[in-house]
Amino acid sequence: MTTTAMTETAVALAGVSKVYGRGGTAVRALDQVSLTAAPGEFTCLIGASGCGKSTLLSLVAGLDRPTSGDVTVSGRVALMFQEPGLFPWLTAAGNVELALRAHKVPRNQRKARTGELLEAVQLGGFGGKRPHELSGGMRQRVALARALAQDADVLLMDEPFGALDAMTRDLLHDELDRVRERVGKRLTVLFVTHNVREAVRLGDRVVLLSSRPGRVIAEYPVPVERPRRIDSAPVAELASVITDRLREEVSRHGR
Amino acid sequence: MAADTTLAGLDALDLGDGTPGRGARDRVARISNAVWPKVAAVALVWVIWEIVHLTGWKHYVLPGPGVTLSNLWAQAQTGLLWHAIGDTMERAVIGYALALVIGTVVGLLVARVPLLRSAVGSLITGLQTMPSAAWIPFAIILFGLNTSAILFIIVMAAAPAVANAMIAGVDYTPPLLLKAGKVMGLGGLSLTRFLILPAALPTFVAGLKQAWAFTWHALLTAELLVLVAGQPSIGVLFQADQDQTDMASTIAVMIVILILGVIVDALFVRANSAIRRRWGLS
Known about the structure:
heterodimer; A: alpha/beta; B: 11 helices
């Protein structure tokens, strides 16, 4: 993986393939995926099981290397998972503060910055709580604050709201929009989800991946004005178009 | 702004009103619930012992509970028993502390360095199964009849258990947390300090209890065989009672050992439940 700051793409994948294992049992998770994201762009990746979405995020995060092809990321990367992955021995504030510490933020600035970040996800009064004392949605917001603490330019989100109830999820969609406005820089987001409406609600662009192996089969710009609602007509219309295309792709595997 | 208040409202609903407060009456009830089964168990043992005594089985050597307890009471009035308990506990604490330091360092190195793990990983388990009595000749030849020999025997028994607890704790670090830590930019020493060690803590503390059991076993074995001149330990008391066929005193000292064991166990249970509460596991 190379890191460059000169290009006007935040994330670029060029002909990226990833094969797990060797010989007859090898599994091709990603096949010749090419994808670019402009700085500040919100890209949603959608696909059925086995489309290699999580593999793709691992490659961008630098947790894994592609078998072939190039992954280029400009700036710092933070990653959020479906589970918050908070450290249970630390408070909400402690979790955020550890990320600041890992990024060498001086001690005297950490406390104030932690307060700001928790405030940004509307958890100002909950810094002293431990993760198990918070609800699922609140934990995921602490995880978001922790990701923001890493001062990332690229935020990777792997089904971050997948385990939440519908009401909490809708509110967190609004929250995510607001937080992106508040961070004061162009935060590029790669957001993986199974939920087509969620993808259309959030994304500037929706990228559809095929399954086994994962390939980019279609891209849909989302020309819907913000603020958006998940239950508005334009969101639902585009979502149904994408859902049809996704079902077509899935049924190919049943034949 | 509407969305802000909705989110705050949802948070309040999700968290509920918190757990109902515990009053003083609950506290009394809780303590009595915890205490009475133990009292009943002691009473049951007393009754069975008394019955065995009344049947007259080996009555010329086996005293009844009344005689034994008054013996214990009499011994508690003398300084000797307390002095012996003090000496033995001092050895236990020093030996355990040494085992803790050595075991933690070795365990952490073995867990984090793959080469070391394949080299000495199974050796540690092998050492743990070695009976502590097997170290006694070695220790006496090496150190002579003194406290160092006893401490050495304790360390050889308890340090492998500590090391294994550390290794297990590191191995059970949830992969998701490791991934989160790595993405966050933790690596090398800071990964160990801020992630691996705290994540290993619950498993480690559970293992420390086992290491204490090894310490206690090794110590009593060592004290019976490594008699250090001028130091009245529990082992020395046992030795004297055995020489004088004083069964009442022997059992009295055994009761002391049992009580010490129960007290230390309670301390470990406390530490364990404090950690579990902190983590939200209970």
